[in-house]
Amino acid sequence: MPTANALRLQIERTLESRFPAALTPAPQTVRETAPVGIATIDSLLSGGLPIGAISEITGPSTSGRTSLALSFMAQRTSEGKVCAWVDASDSLDPQSAAASGVSLRQLLWVRCANAAARTKEKPWSRLDQAMRATDLLLQAGGFAAIVLDLGDIPEESGRRIPLATWYRFRQAADQSRSSLLVVGKAAYAQSSADVALECSPLQAGDTGQTVLDSRAFDVQLKRQRAASAITPIRKPPASTWTALSAWGAQTKSRGGL
Description:
Helix content: 25-40%
CATH class: Alpha Beta
Order of helices and strands: HEEHEEHEHEHEHHEEEEEH
CATH superfamily: P-loop containing nucleotide triphosphate hydrolases
Strand content: 25-35%
Largest sheet: 8 strands, mixed
Number of strands: 12
Distance between the termini: 83 Å
Number of domains: 1
CATH topology: Rossmann fold
Shape: globular
Radius of gyration: 21 Å
CATH architecture: 3-Layer(aba) Sandwich
């Protein structure tokens, strides 16, 4: 009886003309990364988020997921890169984005709204609009980073997004050299994402008045498929970081409330 190795070689030789190395695992790739702008997170990721791939940031509301995405966009736009924010729930606050360092001149804000009153045809849901807009932006190219903000979309709706859609997004991101950052309550892209981060809140600080001064967050690295081009993958399983509240920063400069 032939051994398992002999059977494998026989199958590979049979299929090599149609499917070269069909049963050979793909080698680990090395991707270029872009820094998030938070030292502890960049250390956790061995450099930053991958370029030309999908990354996911998940967590409940007030878990730091949006602050993390804004920090990444601030880094990209400060370099003169053109970026896009696909806002499925039309919930982005431009003032908070600007206070986080995002250059609004370099940011395309795609606001998805309820189209029921605007057309007599079957209206698109906000999720449909967001997915179609993201597809168009990826295919068009020219965007260094695209945030697909599904943070306020019900989790059950996000889980209904076909895996084929995420696979198409992954291919388009790779071809356009764009970092697609998906923000949501759960991991929707699954295996199509190269990096998956899970956020959770820890505590809030205050100034002794009525203004939040900062918030501390816990971030766990759930997946990192490719090695970093900067350093090998040797990292702790989790990291914490503290974000200064944009509202707190503004009021402190005015001497408080």
